[in-house]
């Protein structure tokens, strides 16, 4: 008769069982993409579409993209009730957290629109 995974893990020394459990918990915290993230948050694509003031097919398109603007990703994460934090891993350094990276582009765009309005003749 075959053994199941639980039995195999139970037969390991306690320190190895702890390592398996720690790795399991790490993997449980990772998600494959935006679709899974939305599902974990308990939201439907229609909910996200309403929050972002776009149509549901656009949410589906965002979820399928491999490359997007940080501002799009931030808006999506905020629409599911989260907050986007960016971290950088460098060799032999602790994690570095980037703050306001997407905000800079939004502020610059807003500033250029404001400047353009000011330059417009009356």
Account of the 3D structure:
There is one protein chain. The chain has helices spanning 5-10, 14-28, 34-40, 45-52, 56-64, 70-79, 101-119, and strands spanning 86-88, 96-98. Helix 4 packs across helix 5. The longest helix is centred in the C-terminal third of the chain and has 19 residues, at 101-119. It has two domains: 1-29; 31-119, 434 Repressor (Amino-terminal Domain), CATH 1.10.260. It is mostly helical and 122 residues long. Residues 104-122 have low confidence and may be disordered. It starts with a helix and ends with a helix. It is built from seven helices and two strands; from the N terminus they run ααααααββα. The protein has a two-stranded antiparallel sheet.
Instruction: Write down the overall geometry.
Output: flat
Order of helical and strand elements: HHHHHHEEH
Overall pLDDT confidence: 81
Structural class: mainly alpha
In whole angstroms, the N-to-C terminal distance is 87 Å
* Main pleated sheet: 2 strands, antiparallel
- Strand element count: 2
Which runs of at least 5 residues are low in confidence (pLDDT < 50)?
104-122
CATH fold annotation of the largest domain? 434 Repressor (Amino-terminal Domain)
Give the fraction of residues assigned to helices. 55-70%
Summed up, the domain count is 2
β-strand percent reads under 5%
The CATH architecture name of the largest domain reads Orthogonal Bundle
Supply the number of helical segments: 7
Radius of gyration: 22 Å
Query: Quaternary arrangement of the chains shown?
Result: single chain
Strand order of the largest sheet: 1-2
CATH class type of the largest domain: Mainly Alpha
């Amino acid at each position: 008769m075959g053994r199941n995974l639980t039995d195999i893990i139970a037969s390991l020394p306690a320190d190895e069982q702890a390592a398996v459990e720690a790795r399991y918990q790490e993997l449980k915290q990772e998600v494959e993409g935006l679709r899974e993230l939305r599902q974990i948050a308990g939201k439907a694509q229609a909910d996200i579409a309403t929050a972002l003031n776009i149509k549901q097919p656009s949410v589906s398109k965002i979820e399928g993209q491999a490359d997007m603007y940080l501002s799009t990703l931030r808006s999506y994460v905020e629409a599911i009730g989260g907050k986007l934090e960016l971290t950088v891993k460098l060799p032999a350094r602790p994690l570095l957290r980037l703050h306001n990276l997407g905000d800079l582009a939004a502020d610059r765009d807003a500033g250029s629109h404001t400047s353009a309005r000011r330059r417009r003749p009356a």
